[in-house]
Specification:
HSP40/DNAj peptide-binding domain, 5 domains, flat, 3-stranded mixed beta sheet, single chain
């Protein structure tokens, strides 16, 4: 058998409370009710129970620390300290009692159905959760909007009032499970008597069977229709944001509750703005002369026009920040910023006067300009002159 401390996942210096807490956690994970028909888990549960029996007793723990498993009678019965007891011997009344002791006040075994307790009826299952994608403009994402979402949605059948039974009939109690929706199976194991529950095969866990199905829904108690919902989108959402509409998903079969609807946002790219977190970035194109001499221009923002002053000597890439003109904080107050990034546009064609002016400017600064070759248009012009 493995080291007892390793089995419980604690160190050799762990306190009694830490050992008890670790055992409770491991017992939950390995309990046969949580791992039906799993022989490996069942064997591991037995080992964990044995480890706890030794380490929870101060004298046995001392012997174990000094001599190992041999000091507490090994794992095969006999020996000092009552070692080798079965799990059922250790806990008196069997597995149900240990969980009653550990989880008293919480309804017995944390897995349900333990200790011979019966579960309530399963009943009609809840409907499925559904997902859909909503396409938004950047303006809608920034300021919020009410949008329409359309989808195909299973809803309760009106012809049979969601019972699934045909006209003039009604569901009857399942004879196999007595309306519980579950059947229990009792089996003997190394750990004693185990009780497991599973959905009834005859009624599918519904607790009722239908002799004459409804013709509209074919006994399902629900039909699929085209449905439209109005969804309030808050300002600040982004691609990947999800809104949950509780109870707006598919109706459950035969009267089961509704699932939820998850609306995933997808924001379309904008022609002028790029979003970075809650900030908006836009490029502002100016000429070489405007960058050198300065200018004033009108900047179009999502909130309206703003005056932007470009000082003389502005370099390409310089950023101007307009506070609180960005995207609202979805989980807080305020908005991000609008950042205007300067782009200096270099002309690709110049008139003769512009060439002359720039050449004169370059000479005045002792700058070398041109590549020593005439351009294509100059050569064409010379050929016809």
């Amino acid at each position: 058998m493995a080291d007892f401390y390793d089995l419980l996942g604690v160190s050799s210096s762990a306190s009694a409370d830490e050992i008890k807490k670790a055992y409770r956690q491991r017992a939950r994970e390995l309990h046969p009710d949580a791992n039906p028909d799993d022989a490996e888990a069942e064997g591991k549960f037995k080992e964990v129970a044995r480890a706890y029996q030794v380490l929870s007793d101060a004298k046995q723990r001392q012997r174990y620390d000094q001599f190992g498993e041999a000091g507490v009678g090994g794992g095969s019965g006999g020996g000092g300290g009552g070692g080798g007891q079965s799990a059922e011997d250790m806990f008196g009344g069997g597995l149900g009692d240990i969980f009653d002791a550990f989880f008293s006040g919480s309804g017995g075994s944390p897995f349900g159905g333990g200790g011979g307790r019966s579960r309530g009826p399963s009943g009609p299952p809840r409907g499925q959760d559904l997902e859909t994608v909503a396409d938004l403009t950047l303006e809608q994402a920034v300021f919020g909007d009410q949008i329409s979402v359309e989808l195909k949605l299973p809803v309760a059948c009106g012809d049979c009032d969601a019972t699934g039974a045909g006209e003039g009939t009604k569901p009857v109690t399942c004879s196999d499970c007595g309306g519980a929706g579950q059947v229990q199976r009792v089996r003997q194991s190394l750990l004693g008597q185990m009780v497991t529950a599973s959905p009834c095969g005859r009624c599918g866990g519904m607790g009722q069977v239908i002799a004459t199905p409804c013709s509209a829904c074919r006994g399902q108690g629900r039909v699929t229709v085209d449905k439209s919902y109005q969804v309030d989108v808050p300002g600040g959402v982004d691609t990947g944001s999800t809104l949950r509409l509780t109870g707006r998903g598919a109706a459950g079969p035969r009267g089961g509750g509704n699932g939820d609807l998850y609306v995933h946002m997808r924001v379309s790219p904008h022609d002028h703005y790029v979003r970075e977190g809650n900030d908006l970035i836009t490029d502002v194109g100016i000429s070489f002369a405007q960058a050198a001499l300065g200018t004033s221009l009108t900047l179009e923002t999502l909130d309206g026009d703003e005056d932007l002053v470009i000082p003389a000597g502005t370099q390409p890439g310089r950023e101007f920040t307009l506070r609180h003109r960005g995207v609202p904080h979805l989980q807080g107050r305020g908005r991000g910023d609008l950042i205007a990034r300067v782009r200096v546009d270099i002309p690709t064609r110049l008139s003769d006067d512009e060439v002359e002016a720039l050449t004169s400017y370059a000479k005045g600064r002792d700058e070398v300009v041109g590549n020593g070759k005439e351009g294509l248009f100059s050569r064409i012009k010379s050929a016809f002159s």
